[in-house]
Amino acid sequence: MDSDSFGVSRAPRCVQNPQGKDSALTGLLSHTDNKGGPGMTVYVGGCVLDLGAMLGADCGVVIGEDEAFERVAACYGVQVRQLVTAPLKIEDCVPGVVYKGSSWVELGVFLFGTVH
User: What does the DSSP 8-state code read for residue 36?
Assistant: First the structure.
């Protein structure tokens, strides 16, 4: 899969709470389904407020180190694994697992196979 096969959608900047993030993801997914989907979704976040939306996507990724995120995830039975251990295909990501990347460069390698 190359970068030309990816589409990018972004939630509005005014989304600042977990319910709003979940709703924004649901809206983006329904918009994608109407465009000939199904596509694979990756939700990238940086804090515990993103956890629900990460779990709603095909693959959730948290960027950076956040001990609170990992504690809350563990309370809900969510595993946090290093991004380098993620499957090569997004569709093979495991439900209930969020992958942790150390940088946007690492995320680029995961998504595109190279740094862009």
Answer: T
